[in-house]
Amino acid sequence: MTQASVLVVEDNDLERQITADTLREEGFAVEEAAVGKRAMELLALSQFDVVLTDLMMPGMSGEELLAKVRSSYPGSQVVVLTAHGTIDSAVQAMKTGAFYYLTKPTDRETLVMTVAKAAELSNLQQENLLLKRRLEGKFEIEGIVGQDPAILEVIRLVRRVAPSNSTVLIQGESGTGKEVVAKAIHRLSPRAARQFVAINCSAIPDNLIENELFGHERGAFTGANERKIGLFESADKSTLFLDEIADLPQGMQAKILRVLQEKELRRVGGNESFRIDVRLVAASNRNLAEEVGEGRFREDLYYRVNVVTVTLPPLRDRRGDIPLLANHALAKFGHLAEGRVKDLSREAMEVLLDYTWPGNVRQLESAIERAILLCEGDTIMPRDFPQEVLSRKTPGRSGDRQRGDKFEIPPDGLNFESFERDLILQAMEKTDWVIAKAAKMLGLSYRTLQYRIDKFNLKRGEQSRPPSSSEAK
């Protein structure tokens, strides 16, 4: 397990030594610098998770050092130390990017806890930066953003199937990015030079869908004054994306099946069929296999569209991607504020990590877009988010709860607090002390788990122990 690294910058030799020794005793890897210039030299040589700096120093001030670290070493978090008389300066430092400020003299517990939290955020940001660079390389597909293994598998699958002509079924909840994946498949295919054609089947009334898909001949019905080209024909030698295919009426499902099997099309009111070459990509937020079982979707069409299935995970199951997705949305919508809004505050990011996002990536992007429009400075704050996100309340979903997690209380009872502590410790150890991952494992929010870690004063290296009857009340 890697030690968190801290650079202590303090011109008072005694205070610097006490602070550095305290952090070393708590397991941090610590370097010291008496002035800002020396701190910059050390930063050029090594990467530090946390820079702990005094504000009032000769030469380069703590504020100047903060600005240099923020611009040159964005993976490092800065905690400022200040005397009571300079608290206003410390608050100003927070506004310009410091993780937190501590007033002198600082008690040991507060110092260690603050530096530990800063190091955790630093690790998360560094991991995101690394994976972002990987995504910008061979793992990148435009529009698909994430580092979760499930998303990397989606990217791998898209790259494998895109060059073929096989039909693809994309499954996932609303807002997970099914159309983004469909466009990526088209863009990476030999058909990319032609226009991608898409339709949301649930948005077209049943009595109009055939006309939209197949077109019609002049005089086919009252008002058909001229020939109309349908979407299948428009997508000839290209890709047709049928979103929410499960919402198609059964009669239309049979006609689509015929087009896929025969590769022929007949316009409404036409007497002749003609050949077309269309690659079909379909999507649904329902489980199509279950729809077949319930008799609402044709089994033969299901097997025709389900040659390859790409399944998109909900955002709540890849919470570690939230910082990356939030920053992606910030860059995407930054033009709405003419580039003025450049960052999200630590508190704002914690709010995003705490929420369970029932609307998935689409809802997250909408929240960031709104925040950019309402933000009064250059950094998004929690107040810029919608109330539903701030409240952290999410409508319950049936079937979310895992089955098979029933726990039997021993006949002699147990010490619930000790049991809870050990469960949290086990989760933290299994996830290498990444709170977001441990929270997901326990089914808790980020903030709730953080509170309980603080409550039990849990630290790396502590041993978990199974509950036993000896802990019985």
Quick structural summary:
The chain is of the alpha/beta class.
Task: Give a structural overview.
The two termini are 36 Å apart. The protein has helices at 13-25, 36-45, 62-72, 87-95, 108-136, 149-161, 178-187, 206-214, 231-234, 250-262, 288-293, 299-305, 322-333, 346-354, 360-374, 387-390, 416-430, 435-442, 446-456; strands at 5-9, 29-33, 50-54, 77-82, 100-103, 168-171, 197-200, 215-216, 228-229, 238-243, 264-265, 274-275, 278-284, 308-311, 343-344, 379-380. β3, α3 and β4 form a beta-alpha-beta unit. The longest helix is centred in the N-terminal third of the chain and has 29 residues, at 108-136. Mean pLDDT is 84; it is low at 394-405 and 466-473. With 473 residues, it is an alpha/beta fold. Strands 2-1-3-4-5 form a 5-stranded parallel beta sheet, with helices on both faces. It has a 5-stranded parallel beta sheet with strand order 7-10-13-6-14.
Helical stretch count? 19
What fraction strand? 5-15%
Mean pLDDT: 84
Number of strands: 16
> Between the first and last Cα atoms, what is the distance in angstroms?
36 Å
Topology (SSEs and partners):
Blueprint: E1 5-9, H1 13-25, E2 29-33, H2 36-45, E3 50-54, H3 62-72, E4 77-82, H4 87-95, E5 100-103, H5 108-136, H6 149-161, E6 168-171, H7 178-187, E7 197-200, H8 206-214, E8 215-216, E9 228-229, H9 231-234, E10 238-243, H10 250-262, E11 264-265, E12 274-275, E13 278-284, H11 288-293, H12 299-305, E14 308-311, H13 322-333, E15 343-344, H14 346-354, H15 360-374, E16 379-380, H16 387-390, H17 416-430, H18 435-442, H19 446-456
Parallel strand pairs: 1-2, 1-3, 3-4, 4-5, 6-13, 6-14, 7-10, 10-13, 15-16
Antiparallel strand pairs: 8-9, 11-12
Helix pairs in contact: 2-3, 13-15, 17-18, 18-19
